[in-house]
Every structure is written in structure tokens, then in C-alpha cells.
Write a structure and sequence with these properties.
cell membrane; flagellum; flagellar rotation; mainly beta; Surface presentation of antigens (SPOA); 4 strands; cilium; SpoA-like_sf; 9% helix
Length: 113
């Protein structure tokens, strides 16, 4: 399998993967050169702000039309989920920015938390 890329990828050396005795990457930070980060700054990701969820049977879904109200699993004022590429990264609140809706982040979610 071959891959082509417009962005040159750095070559990894033995020091780039800090594995502990359990065969997993260490929990400590791996020092990086800022130039390494510059190579991924233009990679597009999908950011989503999820107001809530609802589960409905297909039969009910087929009868939904304009003016229908779907009751979500969140309460008014409860934090919404902010996802990057379908992974939860933060929580926030819906805000009004001039005549548009926006989201202000209120909490960063740590991996594994």
C-alpha cells in the first residue's frame, strides 16, 4: 500500500516513542519541537456542538414533520457536549452572538475522565 501526501511527515526515531514496562506509551509528556506541531496545524477536523439526543422508533420518525417537537435528554441550561471528530473534548453553553448562535466552552474534558 502506498500513500501520497502534500505534507512531509517527520521520521520517527527510538526516542519518539517512550514506552514503559507495560508496553504502553508513558504518561509523561514527550518533549516536542514546535516545528513538529506546525506540520499538523492545517489538518481539518470536524467540530460538533451536541444539544442532546433522543431515541425514536422508525415509525415515529416517519411521521415527524414541520412544527414537530423532539424532547431531548438535556435540561434547559445544562451543558452541551463539544466533540472533535466524534470525541468528547469539552462542555459548553449556548450563547447568542449578534444574530447567530454560538457556544462558549465552560469545561475541558480530560481523556479518560
Amino acid at each position: 500500500m502506498t500513500a501520497s501526501s502534500d505534507v512531509p511527515l517527520p521520521q520517527l526515531g527510538e526516542g519518539d516513542l517512550a514506552f514503559g514496562s507495560g508496553g504502553r506509551p508513558s504518561d509523561g509528556p514527550v518533549p516536542r519541537d514546535p516545528a513538529d506541531l506546525a506540520q499538523i496545524l492545517h489538518v481539518p477536523v470536524t467540530l460538533s456542538a451536541v444539544l442532546g439526543h433522543v431515541r425514536v422508533p422508525v415509525g415515529d420518525l416517519l411521521s415527524i414533520g414541520p412544527g414537530a417537537i423532539l424532547e431531548l435528554d438535556r435540561k434547559v441550561g445544562e451543558a452541551i457536549d463539544i466533540l472533535v471528530n466524534d470525541r468528547l473534548v469539552a462542555r459548553g453553553e449556548v450563547v447568542l452572538v449578534e444574530d447567530r448562535l454560538g457556544v462558549t466552552m465552560t469545561e475541558i474534558v480530560r481523556p479518560g475522565a
